[in-house]
Structures are given as structure tokens and as C-alpha cells.
Write a structure and sequence with these properties.
The protein has helices at 2-21, 25-41, 46-65, 67-72, 84-129, 133-146, 153-163, 167-180, 185-197, 201-215, 219-231, 235-248, 253-266, 279-288. It has 301 residues and is mainly α. Helix 2 (25-41) runs antiparallel to helix 5 (84-129), helix 5 packs antiparallel against helix 6 and helix 9 (185-197) runs antiparallel to helix 10 (201-215). The longest helix has 46 residues, at 84-129.
Length: 301
């Protein structure tokens, strides 16, 4: 049992020293406190105890060299043999106080950064409104590079550029945003709008398919896909996508309109009149046929 305890104490001391080299105050204190607690609660004697105390002295030297510790304790933190419990309490209190102070400092720093970010976003937007798109693009790029640690920064910039009608510029940021977070709904929506705005129908369709794969198919996405197929006069796909939207929401007015518009193009009438592309010839043949030659309704996609 003592050998196991000694091994754990040595490992915690080693971790403490490693974290001290990285200036990780909280983990340094946490690991050192564990080592002291282990020393206080375990029965370790002889050479093993001597070795642990030697390692502990080195760990304390590393701790006292740390900038913040040196500032708080100019004379250094001192450990006295036989007073492990007291020193353990000192380390845990210090860990708690430092943790609170560091979190407060982190939040203050983050607030300042976010304030600078907001100011620059407003400045970039004003440059667009002042008809200075080149300067706006430069500023947006600097914002993206400097604030990469802010979650969703590229998605935010891409959405702003989309709202300004700067579609080509927006695609770059939105693509980066989706590489980082595939389920970013705002980025998916914006990149579809961009491709639609640039009349890049195939890319818009691919963007919709990608959105369906990652965030799920919605009636809105089905309607947008139906409208893109409408632009290509692909009536079967217009109907299929509009019908999918209708199935999700029977009250969707756009779905009803698109289905109604596509139906005459893809259904063959009972009298044999075809209204799909090239229907003129089919209609002529149908008129020549006898009334007995009736055809059943079927879809021709």
C-alpha cells in the first residue's frame, strides 16, 4: 500500500513541476496539494520518504519562481515537515482565490475584446454604407484574423456581408464557418442565399443538399430547392420537393402553388394529352386516337 501511495505522490509532484513550467497556476497548485495530502495520509518511511521530500523541495522551488506566486509571497511558500495538513489547507485556499481572480480577469479581458470587436464590425458596416467596399473587405479580413478565438466569428462576418449583398465575399467566410461547425444553421442559410443571389443554381442546390444532410430537411429547404428546379424547368423535381414541403406542412401556400404549377407538366391526362416538354406532338397523336384508348394517370419524371 505504501509503495502505491508513494508512486502516486511522486507522480503528482512531477505533474506539478510540469505545469509550473507552463505557468499553469491552478493545475500546479492542484497537483501539489494532492501530493501533500497523500503525504499526510499515507504511511511512508525510510528512503522512499526521503526521496519524496527531495522531489517536493524541487517542486516548491518551481512554484515560488512563478511570477504571480512570487508577487503574492515574496519570501516564498514554505513547507514544514509534520505540518502537511496546514500546508495542504494553504494550497487549497490559494487555489480557490487564484481561480476566482483569474476567472474575473478573463471575463474582464473578454468583455474588452468583444467591445473592440463590436466597434470594428460597426466601422466595417459604415464603410459599406459609404460605398467603400474595398476598405470594408480589408477590415472584415483583419477582424476575422484577429478574432479567430471568438466562436462563430466567420459565420457572423459572412452573414453581415450577405445582408449587404456582397455575396461572393460572404461565401469565403461562410465556407470557413461550416468547416469549423457543420451544424451552423445561420451559415447554411446565408450561403444558400449567396448562391441564389449570384444565380449559381447548381451551387445553391448543392448547398441545400449539404444543409439537409447536416441540419436536416425542412419545409423551407424543400421549397427553396423546388424554386431552383423551377428556374431550370425540371418539373418533376419541382413537384417532388414541393410535395415534401406540403407533407411537412399542408398549410404551406408556396408548396401548393408550386405543386399546382408543376402538375400539368408532369401528369398525362385521361384523354391521352401530354403536357410535358414536346407535348405538341403527343397532343396531335392523342386527338387522332379513339376515345376507347384511355390512359391511366401516372407520373413521368
Amino acid at each position: 500500500m505504501s509503495k502505491v501511495a508513494a508512486k502516486e505522490i511522486r507522480e503528482n509532484i512531477a505533474r506539478s513541476r510540469a505545469y509550473a513550467k507552463k505557468s499553469d497556476y491552478l493545475r500546479t497548485l492542484e497537483c501539489l496539494a494532492r501530493a501533500i495530502k497523500g503525504l499526510a495520509t499515507s504511511q511512508i518511511f525510510g528512503a522512499e520518504k526521503f526521496e519524496i521530500h527531495a522531489h517536493l523541495d524541487e517542486a516548491l522551488r518551481d512554484l515560488n519562481k512563478m511570477k504571480m506566486i512570487n508577487k503574492l509571497f515574496p519570501a516564498g511558500l514554505k513547507y514544514e515537515k509534520g505540518k502537511e495538513k496546514t500546508f495542504y489547507q494553504t494550497l487549497t485556499r490559494l487555489h480557490k482565490k487564484l481561480g476566482t481572480a483569474m476567472e474575473k480577469a478573463r471575463i474582464t479581458k473578454l468583455r474588452k475584446r468583444l467591445s473592440v470587436l463590436d466597434d470594428n464590425m460597426i466601422k466595417a458596416a459604415n464603410l459599406v454604407k459609404a460605398d467603400q467596399p474595398l476598405e470594408a473587405r480589408k477590415l472584415f479580413r483583419k477582424i476575422s484574423e484577429y478574432f479567430q478565438d471568438i466562436e462563430g466569428i466567420d459565420s457572423d462576418i459572412g452573414n453581415r456581408l450577405t445582408s449587404f449583398g456582397m455575396f461572393a465575399e460572404a461565401v469565403e467566410y461562410l465556407s470557413k464557418a461550416l468547416e469549423v461547425q457543420q451544424n451552423d444553421v445561420r451559415a447554411h442559410n446565408a450561403i444558400i442565399i449567396c448562391y441564389e443571389g449570384m444565380n449559381e443554381i447548381e451551387k445553391a442546390m448543392e448547398a441545400i443538399k449539404n444543409a439537409m444532410r447536416t441540419i436536416g430537411a425542412s419545409e423551407g429547404l424543400y421549397i427553396r430547392m423546388a424554386k431552383l428546379h423551377l428556374a431550370k424547368r425540371e418539373w418533376g423535381e419541382v413537384y417532388n420537393n414541393a410535395k415534401s414541403a406540403f407533407d411537412k406542412n399542408p398549410l404551406n401556400a408556396d408548396a401548393k402553388k408550386l405543386m399546382k404549377k408543376a402538375e400539368p407538366r408532369i401528369f398525362t391526362t385521361a384523354s391521352g394529352t401530354a403536357t410535358t416538354k414536346g407535348s405538341a406532338k403527343a397532343t396531335g397523336k392523342a386527338k387522332a386516337q379513339k376515345p376507347a384508348d384511355k390512359k391511366s394517370h401516372d407520373l413521368s419524371f
